[in-house]
Amino acid sequence: xxxxxxxxxxxxxxxxxGDWNELSIEEVPLPQVKQDEVIVQxxxxxxxxxxxxxxxxxxxxxxxxxSIMGLDFAGTITEVGSNVEGWEPWAKVFGxxxxxxxxxxxxxxxxHLVPIPANLSFVDAAAAAxxxxxxxxxxxxEAMIESGETLLIHGGGSGVGTAAIQLARAAAxxxxxxxxSEDKLQRCLELGxxxxxxxxxxxxxxxxLELTEGRGVDVILDWIGxxxxxxxxxILKTRGRLVLIGLMGGTRTEIQLPVVLTKxxxxxxxxxxxxxxxxxxxxxxAFTDWVLPLLxxxxxxxxxxxxxxxxxxxxxxxxxxxxxxxxxxxxxx
Length: 333
Ligand SMILES: NC(=O)c1ccc[n+]([C@@H]2O[C@H](COP(=O)([O-])OP(=O)(O)OC[C@H]3O[C@@H](n4cnc5c(N)ncnc54)[C@H](OP(=O)(O)O)[C@@H]3O)[C@@H](O)[C@H]2O)c1
Fold this sequence. Notes:
By secondary structure, the protein is of the alpha/beta class. It has helices at residues 49-54, 122-142, 159-170, 182-191, 204-211, 226-235, 258-262, 277-297, 313-322, and strands at residues 5-12, 22-29, 37-47, 72-80, 92-96, 105-109, 114-115, 150-153, 174-179, 195-198, 217-222, 236-244, 266-269, 304-309, 328-332. The mean pLDDT is 97. It binds NADP nicotinamide-adenine-dinucleotide phosphate (NAP).
């Protein structure tokens, strides 16, 4: 390999937004280390739902981020910036990034690194990164859920869902999930969910009210958005929190505002990727204190559905699109 270049998954854009652009592995410039950064040789990264949008030109990277896809990585440090203390070459690390995970090497601020615990492989660590960060940030830091409260998670069998069920359960939160098949619901119960609702066959809002004796839930982790909003406001308790992290069910809707007022609800929008370096550094510190020990002890575990070699990235994206997966899809070099 030319020392100044590296292989990476590259999107061949047609220029038309929404097209299913082709992916190919090509030689691109190696990222250059800045003084507060390290270079990580990536051994594994995961596929996230957002990647499917990015390849179609519908989710561009934030200003200053790598244009290479990939929101997480697990690998070994190969180079350390001049201001970095506490990290050495060969250390095994994982974490989140606003872009670049699908490259063989990625530049990451040292303050965003998490050490890979001895009980996790590179594949496990890649599977944990984006989704455990997302679940932790939104359930605990944004919604400030407390033990004994009830949480509704849609798509419990997703990457984010499988992480959220386990983290909530570890904090003695009662979890209700939805999923689109009986098999996925069963597996969510095994991960720690108390109740499962098949959203394709049942009215989830009516089921939630029945399961909670009409009281509703304290927190909803929502990436459906518009099509569920009216129901969500209806099934939230007084002072309930809705954390909106995606829009798979549409972007526009109309609601009656009195319910927000009278129940003193909070609707919180949250995107991990566009947080500033400083915000991410604070999040990484909190994650290292709270979530890393749970991963280390095996109390929570990333759920890996399937591992694909990086040259099968198209297959991995098609598999996610088909929606049969439970947990994470991981790409390896
Ligand atoms: N804002 C952020 O910072 C952030 C960060 C990470 C992820 N996200 C978002 O979180 C979501 C999950 O990401 P992922 O990578 O874990 O995706 P994923 O594994 O592909 O999962 C998508 C899930 O959505 C569920 N779903 C689809 N339509 C549904 C509906 N109408 N009702 C209930 N569930 C439905 C699916 O359930 P079934 O398969 O059971 O049908 C599936 O489990 C995505 O929207 C992603 O963009 C946001």
